[in-house]
Specification:
single chain; alpha+beta; three-stranded antiparallel sheet; three-stranded mixed sheet; 2 helices; about 20% helix; globular
Length: about 100
């Protein structure tokens, strides 16, 4: 799975869980548990955020998530993934032509 846009995430499990429950209105939810490496990681925005308590991390466009495992926690499906940041990013024009 790769996104052509920036992807927002949080390093706080409670924040991610709360958002997933809000969206699903207390029904089954999905949370991606993203493991960052030394090289493949997002940008921490907590220091400039209007909501620093969310501990937001933004992943760059064309980052990949490689599913490692899944598990269920209550009504939430947790998908454990490794992050793969695209180190040779395409230009906006190249991405648009791929759509």
């Amino acid at each position: 799975m790769a996104s052509t846009a920036f992807t927002s995430a949080s390093v706080d499990k409670t924040i991610a869980s709360d958002y997933s429950q809000l969206v699903q209105n207390q029904k089954a939810a999905i949370v991606f548990e993203i493991h960052q490496g030394l090289r493949d990681r997002g940008a921490q925005l907590e220091w400039l955020s209007q909501w620093p308590h969310e501990r937001e991390v933004v992943l760059p466009p064309m980052s990949g998530l490689e599913v490692q495992s899944t598990r269920v926690d209550g009504v939430t499906l947790i998908i454990s993934c490794n992050l793969a940041v695209n180190l040779k990013p395409a230009t906006i024009e190249q991405i648009i032509t791929q759509k």
